[in-house]
Every structure is written in C-alpha cells, then in structure tokens.
Write a structure and sequence with these properties.
This protein is an alpha/beta fold. It has three domains: about 5-55 and about 200-270 and about 370-415, 3-Layer(bba) Sandwich (FAD/NAD(P)-binding domain), CATH 3.50.50; about 85-190, no CATH class; about 275-360, Protoporphyrinogen oxidase, mitochondrial, domain 2 (Polyamine Oxidase, Chain A, domain 2). About 25% of the residues lie in helices and about 25% in strands. A seven-stranded mixed β-sheet has the order 8-7-16-17-18-15-19, with helices on both faces. The protein has a five-stranded parallel β-sheet with strand order 10-2-1-14-20, with helices on one face. A hairpin with a 4-residue loop joins β3 (about 40-45) and β4 (about 50-55). α1 runs parallel beside α6 (about 200-215) and α2 packs across α10. The chain is globular. The mean pLDDT is about 95.
C-alpha cells in the first residue's frame, strides 16, 4: 500500500495529514520538535503559571480553510468571537477612541453612517480600497493607494500590518488585495474576528492529533528531524533521519511542510523567500477591566493589538524588526505602559512574559512574493506545503491550512492513479 510521508507537524503538515487520512490514505507524519503545531503552539509558562499561546493568531469568520479543517477534526466550536464584525481602536496620542461597525452584507451601506465608519473619513474615501483588488504583481500598496489620511492610519494600515506582517507601505498590493477580497469585499459576516479557545493547541493541534489517532493508517512521529532527502532521477528515494532511513516505494509521496529556510537546506534547487519579518508578543497576568473589548487596536504606541482574555492581557506587535532585539525587561515596560493607557488601568506591571518570533513570516513584498514556489516540484513524488508557498494569500493560518489541503489532494490523486 502506498504511503503519504509528511515532513513537518505545523498547521500545514497537520492539514495535509488530516485531509489525507480522511480520504483513507496511509499517512506518516514526522515532526522535528517534541510537539506538533509549529508556530501555532501553546505551552505552560512558569512566569505566568498559566498555559499561554506563543502569539495571538487571529482568524476571521470567512476563513474557509480554517472552518473546513476544524470541522474535519471535530473542533468546529473551538473559536470564539462577536456575532457581528466590530473593531475597536484607541489613539494613545490624541486619546480618541472609536469602534468600526461594518454591516453584515457585501453592500457597504455602513460607510454612509458617520457613527459606524472611521472617524474623519467620508464615504467616497472607501472607493480607493477597490484599487487594491486589481493591482499588478509587482506593485506595492503605496503604488496603488494613498498611504496617508484617516482611513489609512485608523483602519487600513493596522489591519494590513497585522495580515501581512510587513510594513504596509512596502508590501505587495496583490497580497493586500487578496486579504481585502476575502474580508471587506464580502461584508461583515466574513470578517468577524475569531480567537481560539481556550488556546491554540486545544483548537488546532490536539483535536487533529486525536483525529489522526482514530485512523489506523496514520502514524505521528515526534522528535524526528529530517537530515537529508535522497533523490534518484525524478523522484525522492529515501528520507534520512538521525537514527533511521525511510525508503520510499515508487507509489509513495512526500509532502515537505517545513519552513522555507529548512526547505532550502534540504532541496537547494527549490527557490524560497529569503527575507523575513518578526513578531513580538507580550503576555501579562491580569484580568482586563470590565467592558474591555476582546480585541483593541492601538494607534500611536509600540503595542499594535491588545487581546483581552479572562485571566490575562496579551499584546502583539507585527513587523517588529525594530524592537525584536531589545531587552525583554525593557520591552515589557514599554508594552505594559501602552496597555495601561489604552485600557485605563493602573500602570503597576503584573507578572509578564515576552515571546519573540524572529522569522515569523516571509516579508510580504512583491519581490519576496515572487520567490514563493507552488505546491508541485519537478520531482514527481515531492510536494510542498506551508504558509510561505504560493497560496495567493499572505503567511496566515488560512494560508497554511490551504496549502496542506491542496498537497493532500494532489498526493491522494497520485495514490489513486
């Protein structure tokens, strides 16, 4: 019987494994770390005496691959969020506060209501968003729309910075348009914010491993770092691990679902993005004040998004290269000062933790986007998966899951031939 060998147990690899196993394929999943999940992970933190996520990974209600994956693993109720799209903001410079409340449907009637749209904007300002939907592959956002004014500063820049993890002015207009096409262009029901509950692992990882455990033809091997891929002609012949070598049958398929730099080391012929952007997250063990929004955008501070959980407050800073190498203690004070001002609470810093991801995503510039390979490779039994391959979306959970699902479809189709 042929086997689909999946290297990498992050969300792309898990997605490939789940989709393959659901179709009855024999699956072998190999993960270098001692746990699955990759960057989408949860762990017990002694400083906070709590289980926390490495970062705040936001998904939206219209993320179709997320919904399909969660249904497949029996975790369709693992995300929480408001019934309608709402985005609250606080400007630390001016003290202004506002909440954007789009309508549910695709027709943007809400832009004609000054109480629901971005303060300081007019209805016709929003027409510029449509220009991003038809941008060329070499264009930056700044080449297509004006990167100034209230709409940009108070809505588009914060949202695109979070989605692209790249300075929006330098980022790919095509990737920005892809985000907007699946969110703002579809109406509020498609971009209601959703947060994993109680944590990322419980929503995306543990149910997937449990699902694979119910499939007799699926095996998960943790602590197995791939050292070398052996090729013979136009096919992968063997996977070499530190303590064993897995030889492939002619009908077997390999899905390589590892970060781009690992892919480049294992298969130098495959082009991959070469520039990356960091993310800094801070976690504070303090219950938020009553009435605090679940998610708060911050303008004019170092903090960019504040996430309020029942027992803690978390902060995310995207495209954080300017601060990622700063002292953790100093970062905690800087970010907590922003939190205290934004939420109107005492400035006494509670127990804290800083989590840095130096290579969180590829830089979503036109030049780096052009380096993203497709799922197929020149080897007949080698496929790629990961949020960094060319999914048409920036490096997000949705992108990772789509890539894994596509790889599974191609692998299973090959098995069926």
């Amino acid at each position: 019987m042929s086997t689909i060998h999946i290297v990498g147990g992050g969300l792309a690899g898990l997605s490939a494994a789940v989709a393959s196993a659901a179709q009855g394929a024999s699956v072998m999943l190999y993960e270098a770390a001692g746990q699955a999940g990759g960057r989408c992970r949860s762990y017990y933190d002694a400083a906070l005496d709590a289980v926390i996520d490495n970062g705040n990974h936001l998904v939206l209600s219209g993320n179709t691959a997320v919904q399909e994956y969660l249904r497949a693993i029996g975790a369709k109720d693992a995300l929480a969020g408001p019934e309608h799209a709402e985005f609250s903001f606080a400007d630390l410079g001016t003290g202004a506060r506002w909440t954007i409340r789009p309508g549910d449907g695709p027709l943007p009637w809400w832009i004609f209501d000054s109480a629901r749209r971005v303060p300081g904007t007019k209805p016709w300002d929003y027409a510029s968003i449509g220009l991003l939907l038809t941008a060329g592959r070499s264009q930056r956002i700044v080449d297509v729309v004006s990167c100034k004014g209230s709409l940009w500063e108070k809505l588009l820049r914060p949202l695109l910075l979070a989605a692209l993890n790249t300075e929006p002015e330098k980022a790919s207009a095509v990737l920005a348009g892809a985000v907007l096409r699946e969110t703002l262009a579809k109406g509020g029901l498609a971009y209601r914010p959703r947060i994993a509950k109680p944590n990322l692992a419980a929503a995306f990882v543990e149910p997937a491993l449990a699902f694979l455990g119910t499939k007799g033809g699926a095996m998960v091997h943790l602590g197995q770092r791939l050292r070398r891929i052996a090729f013979e002609g136009d096919a992968v012949a063997a996977l070499e691990f530190p303590e064993s070598t897995v030889r492939l049958a002619p009908e077997d398929t390999v899905v390589l679902a590892v970060p781009p730099w690992v892919t480049a080391d294992l298969v130098p012929e495959i082009k991959t993005p070469t520039e990356f952007r960091s993310i800094v997250n801070a976690h504070f063990k303090l219950a938020p004040p009553p009435g605090a929004p679940a998610m708060l955008g911050v303008i004019g501070g170092t903090a960019e998004w504040i996430f309020n959980f029942a027992d803690r407050i978390s902060v995310t800073v995207s495209a954080a290269d300017a601060i990622v190498d700063k002292d953790r203690e100093a970062l905690s004070w800087t970010l907590w000062a922003d939190v205290a001002r934004a939420l109107g609470i005492d400035s006494t810093r509670p127990p804290w933790q800083i989590v840095k991801e130096k290579r969180a995503t590829f830089a979503a510039t036109p030049e780096q986007a052009a380096l993203r390979p497709g799922c197929r490779t020149r080897w007949r039994n080698l496929l790629l998966a990961g949020d960094w391959i060319d999914t048409g979306l920036p490096a997000t959970i949705e992108s990772a899951l789509r890539s894994g699902h596509k790889a599974a479809q191609l692998a299973c189709a090959r098995v069926a031939v």
